[in-house]
Amino acid sequence: MSKLLDPKVLMAIKELSLSAKMTIDGFMSGINKSTIKGGGLEFSQYRSYQPGDDLRSLDWKMFARSDRYYIRESEVETNIGVRILIDASASMNHSDGDFTKIQYAKYLGASLAYLANLQGDAIGLYVFQNSGIFSMTPKQDFQHLARLFYQLESINPDGEFTKPIHYKELFAGTQKRELLIFVTDLYQTNDEIIHLLDTLNTLRHEVVVFHVVSRNELDLDFKGYTTFEDLETGETIQIDQAKARTEYKTKLANYLEETRVKMLDRRIFYRTICTDEPLDQALRDFLKQRSKLRI
């Protein structure tokens, strides 16, 4: 499966739904639902009786055979709302080689949506761009997933990130705790993305942030370019890459560490993910976070 999880291979498959299916079917072979142990209909295992256990859970047939008390445990599904949040500001058009940050974000979002749907969770989509927020209310059915794939494919990054004044409309009336997966390059001018994350935290949602970066950003290697343009403001600057590289990398490392600490302080699961990085690690991180969630 490592070949299918290679971004270059995935992005050669133009149809997001097919790419997501191939990725998840291979990565999650044999795993098709999210469960916790408890009372339910599908048998999971026996365990020894402990003082305080519900006597109605005792298995009397096991007692007759073994003369010992056992509790019969079953699996119950933990269906939740999973919202995929995509940063569609112009900076996501940044490219490295054959593809852009937004392309990587689309394939990552599609794979995570397919996985969550496979586990029986309701899937929603939010796209942040300029002064608006495109939204799809979470639902759990295949037709809804197909519409989500279509909307992901239609994303065309432009302008700046959505202004904080619009955030209050995001989750009005939502009472249930949800899992929010935010794919962004964290390019911001006035901490508007941090403001968004603070808003989500006040609603007590579980938040996962995938910070998308490119290899040429990390290494300051733009193959001879000396003039750089801000994709959102249009401002330009000239840089001697060879002279600036050491100081740039130091400042970038400090910025990434400061960002990590900010997320940690907010109890947000955070990791950087490079656009040349196979998707399997991002998927593993999602599953790790998913296993911690208890509604």
Overview of the structural elements:
- With 295 residues, the chain is α/β, with parallel strands linked by helices.
- It folds into two domains: 7-32 and 79-292, von Willebrand factor, type A domain (Rossmann fold); 35-77, no CATH class.
- It has nine helices and 13 strands.
- The chain has helices spanning 7-10, 16-27, 60-66, 101-118, 142-154, 192-202, 215-219, 241-265, 280-292, and strands at 35-38, 42-48, 70-77, 81-87, 95-96, 99-100, 122-129, 132-139, 179-184, 206-213, 227-229, 236-238, 269-274.
- The strands form four sheets. A six-stranded mixed beta sheet has the order 8-7-4-9-10-13, with helices on both faces.
- Helix 6 links the parallel strand 9 and strand 10 (206-213).
- Helix 4 (101-118) runs antiparallel to helix 5 (142-154).
